[in-house]
UniProtKB/TrEMBL annotation:
InterPro entries: Schlafen_AlbA_2_dom (IPR007421), Schlafen_AlbA_2_dom_sf (IPR038461). Gene3D superfamilies: Schlafen, AAA domain. It comes from Sphingobacterium pedocola. This is Schlafen AlbA-2 domain-containing protein. It comes from the Bacteria. Pfam families: SLFN_AlbA_2 (PF04326). Residues 155-299 form the Schlafen AlbA-2 domain.
């Protein structure tokens, strides 16, 4: 999937900025603009996951309160990007022949440099389109690091791993009894402080993925969509659609060539979430689960009342007369 096309231009010449924005728009790019290294540092944390590339004037301002271009700008900007956003493609632009020559002498082996003339800009956008084709893979690498970092933290109060939703790896077949364990985890997070559930990860932190597990139990070509629909149905049946308000959008990540599903419970739900549990005599009772330090814990009858009063006082505290 190719994403929307965004650029970040750092150039203190407003006339060039205006003409560049028009040219970029004609090529299908939306462009954010800054006029100094200061603005580069302010804007890049908000934009780095969206933009195809950063375009830097070879001579620019270091801070917004300066009036004269600083020759140290390009070195300072590149050093900042190398330290903090090395994965982001960047190119250098200049309309100054001497600056172009100097930049090539200094950066030709490590940086892409283009002139601010029709030929240079045409070549620039050819390169930007190449960068844009690579953007999904570049972001996937970032996502993979994010998930691996989560896994490195080990299971805890706000993190749990599950190998599957409805597949038994031991017997190699579909097993819907796993539904209960996933719903129990979601309920426990919602009755506590929220948390992250990773599906496709074993307790020992190894990644089993969904391809040979849960995805093999689903029909149709779009396994991710079918998986989300299954989760929607389970949540609706067990908790009601209002529970969706406490879930972030379900996301899938490629980690070491395998698919992992990430479900985020944003925080404590507005009301307690119960799980229906069958008893030996065939009756059904409602049970409250919470998250312990590294596991899901069932509250006994004596603990429930106190927990409800402490965590939803506006609903369950009754003033003594």
């Amino acid at each position: 999937m190719i994403m929307n096309k965004f650029l970040l231009l750092i150039d203190d010449k407003e006339e060039f900025k205006d003409s560049f924005l028009i040219e970029a728009q004609s090529k299908g790019y939306r462009t954010a603009w800054g006029r100094s290294k200061q603005e580069l540092e302010e804007k890049i944390p908000l934009l780095n996951r969206k933009i195809t590339a950063i375009i830097l004037d070879v001579k620019c301002l270091l801070t917004n309160n300066q009036e004269i271009e600083n020759n140290n700008f390009i070195g300072a900007a590149l050093s900042f990007l190398d330290r903090n956003y090395k994965h982001l493609p960047r190119v250098i632009l200049t309309g100054d022949e001497e600056a172009f020559t100097n930049a090539n002498n200094i950066f030709s082996e490590s940086e892409l440099i283009f002139k601010k003339d029709p030929t240079g800009l045409n070549n620039l956008f050819i390169k930007l389109d190449e960068f844009h084709q690579e953007l999904p893979n570049r972001l996937m690498t970032i996502d993979e690091k994010e998930i691996l970092s989560l896994i490195d933290n080990s299971e805890g109060r706000i993190l749990e791993f599950k190998s599957a939703l409805q597949y038994d790896f031991f017997y190699g077949k579909k097993n819907k009894s796993g539904h209960h364990n996933i719903l129990k985890s979601l309920a426990a997070f919602s009755n506590s402080d929220g948390g992250v559930l990773l599906l496709g990860v074993n307790d020992d932190k190894s990644i089993c993925g969904l391809e040979d597990g849960d995805f093999s139990t689903l029909v149709g070509g779009d396994k991710e969509d079918a998986y989300k629909l299954l989760l929607d149905e389970l949540v609706q049946t067990s908790f009601g659609n209002d529970f969706q308000s406490n879930l972030e959008a379900i996301k899938f990540y490629k980690v070491k060539g395998k698919t992992v599903c990430k479900i985020v419970v944003k925080g404590k739900h507005s009301s307690p979430i119960y799980i229906n549990m069958p008893a030996a005599d065939g009756t059904i009772s409602q049970v409250l689960f919470i998250r312990g330090q590294a596991s899901t814990r069932k509250l006994n009858d004596n603990e429930v009342s106190s927990y409800l009063k402490n965590n939803w006082p506006e609903r369950f505290n009754v003033l003594s007369q």
